[in-house]
Structures are given as C-alpha cells and as structure tokens.
Amino acid sequence: MGRGKLRIYLGAAPGVGKTYAMLSEAHRRVERGTDCVVAFVEHHGRARTEVLLRGLEQVPRREIEYRGAAFTELDLDAVLARRPRVALVDELAHTNVPGVRNAKRWQDVEELLAAGIDVVSTVNIQHLESLGDVVESITGVRQRETVPDEVVRRADQIELVDMSPQALRRRMAHGNIYQPDKVDAALSNYFRPGNLTALRELALLWVADRADEYLQQYRSEHRVSKIWGSRERIVVGLTGGPEGRTLIRRAARLAEKGAGGEVLAVYIARSDGLTSASPKELAVQRTLVEDLGGTFHHVLGEDIPAALLDFARGVNATQIVLGSSRRKTWQYVFGPGVGATVARESGPDLDVHIVTHEEVAKGRGLPVARGARLGRSRIVWGWFAGLGGPVLLTLLLSTVHLGLANDVLLYLALTVAAALLGGLYPALASAAVGSLLLNWFFTPPVNRITIADPRNMLALAIFVGVALSVASVVDLAARRTHQAARLRAESEILSFLAGDVLRGETSLETLLERVRETFGMESAALLEREGDLAPWTCAGRAGSGPPVDRPEDADVDMPVGDHMALALTGRVLPAEDRRVLAAFAAQAAVVLDRRRLREEADRARALAEGNRIRTALLAAVSHDLRTPLAGIKAAVTSLRSDDVAWSEEDQAELLEGIEEGADRLDHLVGNLLDMSRLQTGTVTPLIREIDVDEVVPMALGGVPEGSAELDIPETLPMVAVDAGLLERAMANLVENAVKYSPDDRTVLVAASALADRVEVRVVDRGPGVPDEAKDRIFEPFQRYGDAPRGAGVGLGLAVARGFAEAMGGTLNAEDTPGGGLTMVLTLRAVGASASTPRPATAERQAAG
Q1: What is the per-residue pLDDT across 203-213, written as a single tens digit (0 to 9) for each?
Q2: Using one digit for the tens of pLDDT, what is the confidence trace for 139-153?
Q3: How many helices (H) and strands (E) does the chain have?
Q4: Where is the Histidine kinase domain (predicted)?
C-alpha cells in the first residue's frame, strides 16, 4: 500500500473554525461511503463542534497518568489496528505526554501516513516552527508547541480557514471559543485586533507562497511560457540613469496595491552599444530595490527590448515599468526606442507603464544602436545612398549643367554621406559607381570610357581617394566605438561580479546562478577531475537544464586550468562573450578553492580543539583528581598513625571516606580516559543486538537507591549497540540528572519505540537549561550554572554524546513539561536500515 495523503486546515488563530471544517468534511466523506474515523479531536467544550462529533466513529483514546494527573492522548496503535481509509487528527503541533511513543503528534501522523492511511488535520499559523520569532514579536507569547514547516509543506492539500478579526472577537465575546471566565483576559491580550490582523496576514502570505510554489512547479513541468497573472510581479527596466530611483519607488507603490506584490529590477547590459550607465548609480539603485523588498538582476542581452520581455515572461511578470525616453527628438530617426518597442511587442498578457521623470528628453550618452556596429537601418540607408544615390544625382545633373568641378564635388558629398551612414563598403560602392557615371556622362569625351584632359583624370583620382579615406575613417570610428562599448559592458559585468564578492555573495551556487542569469542559459555547472584520465565530477550546479557529465556535452564550455571547466547549456555563446565568461569561470574556481580552504580550516579547528581538550585534561588532573587523592592519603595516614587511638566508629568513617574518594577518583579517571579516546578517534564499538532492559538498570548502580525509577517496557524491540558504551553513557546521564534534581523528586528513565528507533529518556525536575545553552552543555569541561569544582570536570554529558554517536545514535536535550531537563538518547532498532556506526571512539567491549 502506498503512502497516505495529508490534508491540513490552516488557521490564523484559535477559534476560526478549523476543527468545525474538518468534522464537516468527515460527514461529507462518510455520506459518500468513505471509511472515516475520529482518531483524536478536541472540541474544547464548544457546543457546535461537539455536535458534529455525533454520527462519526471515534477510536478510544489512550489514558496516561502523569505527575498525579490523568491525560488522554491519541492511541496510535489502536488506529493502526483499525486501519481506516481516513483518520481525523486534531492539533498537529500538540506535544504528547511523556510515556507516549512519539514526542509530537505530527510524528504520530507520519506513522499513519506511512501505513497508507489518509489523514485530515488542523494547525494554526503560529505553530509553524519558522514563524516562532515573528509570532513572539507580535503577540509577546512564545509558542512552545511547534511543527516543522516541511511537515506542513509536504501536505497534499492545505486549506486556509479564514475569519476577520472582528468576527473572531465577536465569537470570543459570545463564549464560543473560551470559557466565560477567560474571555476578558483573552480579548485584552492575545486576541487584540492588531494581533489577529497580523496573524491573519501571516497565514494568508504563507498560503500564497505555497500556492506560488505549486504554480511554478506546474509551469516548469508543463513548460508553460505564457504569463499567468496569478500574482503581481513588476519588472523595472533600468538604464543606469538617475531616473531609476523614481522607477523603483513607483514600482514599489504599484506592488503595495496588490497583496503579495513583488518587484524585480533588471539592468540589461548590451554588448554592442551601451548607454552611459554609471556603476555607482546602479549600486545605489540595487541597494534601494533590496531595501524595498525587491530583487536586482543583471542580464546580458544583444537586443534590449527582446531581452527585457524574455526576462519578464521567464519570471511570470504581470507588469513592466519603464521610464520615458531620455533621447532628444532628433534621435528618434534611429528607431522608436525601447519603451515603444516593449509596449508594442508585450502582447495582451503584460502591462507596460511609461513613467515620466526629470531626465526626459535631456539626452543620452550614446545613440541607440542595435544589431551590427552602425545599426542595421544605417547600413541599409548607406547602401541605398552608395548605389542609388549616384544614379539619382546623374539624372538630376543631366537637366542642370553645373560644370565638371561642381559635379565632382556633389558626387564626393554623396560618397561621404554613404560612408557616414553605412561605413566602408557602401562608400566604396558609391565611389566606384560615381566615378564611372562621372566619366561616362560628364567627362569629355562624353558617352565614352576614355578621358581626354589629364586634369579631369586627376580630379577623378582625387575624388576616389577622398571617398576611400572618409569611408576608412568612418569604419575605424565605428569599430572603435563598438570595442569601447563592448569593453564597457564587460567592465560593468565584472564590477557587479566584484561587488558580489565584496558583499559576501561568494557561495558557488550563487555565483553559478549569476552566470546562468547573466548569459540567459538554462543551466551552469562547474566540473572538475583529478587527472587527465579521471572521470568528471560536478562541484556545483545552478538552473534546471539537463545535467552535463562532460564539458564536451555542454553548449558552452570554458576551461579553468587543466582539470576544471565551466559548462553551460541553453545556447551557443558568441566568441566575444567568452572573455567575460572566462572571468566568471576563474571566479568560480576561486570560490571553490575558498570553500575547500574553509573546510580545511574547520578541520584545523577540530585539531586545535583536540589540543585544547588535552590541555584541559592536564589541568583537570592538576586539581580535580588531586582532591580525592589527597582525601584518600589523609585517611590512610590517619589510620596508620600510632599516636591516636581510633574508635571503631572513627575507623569506619575514615574507611568510608577512602571508599568514596576511590569511587570518585575512578569515575573521574574513567571520564577523562573516555574523553581522550573520543578525541583521538580510538573507540571502535562492538555492535550487537541487545535488549534495553538488560543494560539500562545496570547504569543506576552509581546513584543513591530510590533516586531514579525505571519505565522500560519488555515489548521494546532490540537495539544494535555496544553494551558497555550504552551502560557508561546512561550512567553519566542518570548521575547528571540526579545531581540537579531536587531531593524529593526522583529521576525517571523511560524507553519507547518510535518507527525504526528506540528512544531512552532521562527526565529530571531540576532547574532546566535555557534553549541557547542546550548544545553547549555537551561540550567538554562545561559545568552548568554555579556548580562547584568538586562537582566534576564537566565531561559526563560530552562522553555520553560521544558514545551515542559512536553507536550510530543521537543524544539531545529537551525541556521537561512542567520544569526540568529531559535527555533523549535515540538508538537504532534491530532491522532498521541505517548506515554503519562510524568508528568514533575508544575501543572497548564494556565500559565499566
């Protein structure tokens, strides 16, 4: 049987009607003949919710006695034995009473889903783990019961149960949510209108983000390129001019008018004729858009309108914001401009906003150019002037006789115009055609190819020379302009690359995503290999294109050294783009080296930590071990003294002190040796199958009788552990719990099975440990609070965690409900699929 499906009713606050909606759905399913049962539903005394429970089969709850009180929890085994088609499980984030198999109800739900049972559940937005800090800042209340976001995100269906704050407060005032004695306090604290409005916004935005993920996944899977206006995404086209700030703020205001609006600013660097973009101004605009909650994108495109529209459709944008053109009126002879072109080609699915600003018609740094160096339209006009112009001029001069000198000057002017418009080749064509027409129609003898007067021959030669010179100069200027624009584009791309490094955006994946976005590719990957004959491996990848196993399989590959290459898929890049790509590739290699250096530094820190541990061991020997030795020596010296006649009671007391000092010394030496072996990696656990109840009771021998009680069922599965390491780890945990637990409260050692593992919990009623210190207490030589030096060297918990990890288990600390600390030791049950425990620590078959 496959995995069951999970449906979640999500609400912004208690009382919005999640449980009511869940029970209503259950009645609809039962009416359709679905086998649906109530596994656990809490009606909280709400009459209308309680009425809906009637007519539905309810699985009896499990009754548990805890701290002298009776509690009821979901009976997971009963539901699994019943095996309904659908089970209703209320309050997904609920924390179970200690003694139940799972610590959290969502873990119970995971078991039901794994068994093929569909589950319908409820949860409030404030119980999502990632929103804990946000909810606390809004309400002032820290949510102790949370559920991981990923659990909710994996749900097959999420339905928002919404209610306005005013309606929810009315329900509260009418006594439909809490008991009458709690209504006033709730309305004046948690259920204030501002709190409810903020929580409602959180719920709406979270569900909207989830829906957006579904939509993007669907569009990607079905290759949908048409824009779906399901959410306002506003693309701002930036030129690098000062008007960009106005456009960004205008787009931000447009985004605020629609819930969940998103602003994406994009600057398109063109390789054949950039406008005069200021890198400093672009940096300011990038900071501005990020401060307003948007994102900045830098894209390389040959045709700015086409690149802008491709980007907008790629991100499923709904609007484009552009500024009014800064070109002067005469510059429109070179084309309609970016704004007009984008508006014409955007189609019905994209709205284009042209925003006025103070820089309108103040001119641009360079004329607009598209396609080739001089522009496609200029070249066309150049050829027309070079070929058609001499013919038209000949027809004109046939009716008006101005003399040969004037005719030559007119043909020369026409050749210069062809050179200015189209460059070298149209000018050459104009000079050739013009010289032939001059010779045939206007140079004596006319209508003949010969020239009678040598001076006319010189005039024609000068005409051709001037024409060639002007054409060469214009072509050279165009070439230099193109090169300057290309270098400017490259410098801006590289400046943004350097800016990313300075801002700390140095992760390999981030850099590869920048490469993919800049060059408009489907995917980018950094490949490497150890030698010339070794296979290629992928060090990092970005994008959704097909994976590349070799650089030769990519559309573009850029070598980086002898054994590394940057591979791109999507299209073939022109040769002039490869220089910028080479800079990206070199930076990717640097980032990869830096990441590996950080890993080496981490390993060096680990070695340094080992040295610190050894130094601390010596310090511990100098004090903590000397104290029991001094006590033993003093007691032995006193007993051997002939000057004092000791009574039997005195002798017994001295012998008891010797025994206590020896025990304490044995315990300290054992922990020191264990920690030393853990740090040097010389423990190889001897794993075998044992019962937990065979080992754990032996760990209680070092604590006073009656200070700890056991609750270990005989039905637990066997675990794969090293018996000696487990005993030593449990002994340290129990001794630590007894040390901090009040004298009148016993420590509880309980075990339970959870899926493919067994959890052993050591529960104390001491002062507890703050959340920020829970990991620190497992570090070597850590004493919590004001523990005296005689309390030990602070190795017990560090040794326990080291032994747990050596056996393939984990050890973590949790708060005890009602106060105190609970140590949770998780072990692998026999038959569970898991990796072989890593050899972490001291070779031993028993820890005594």
Answers
A1: 888 887 777 66
A2: 777 788 889 888 888
A3: 25, 24
A4: 620-831
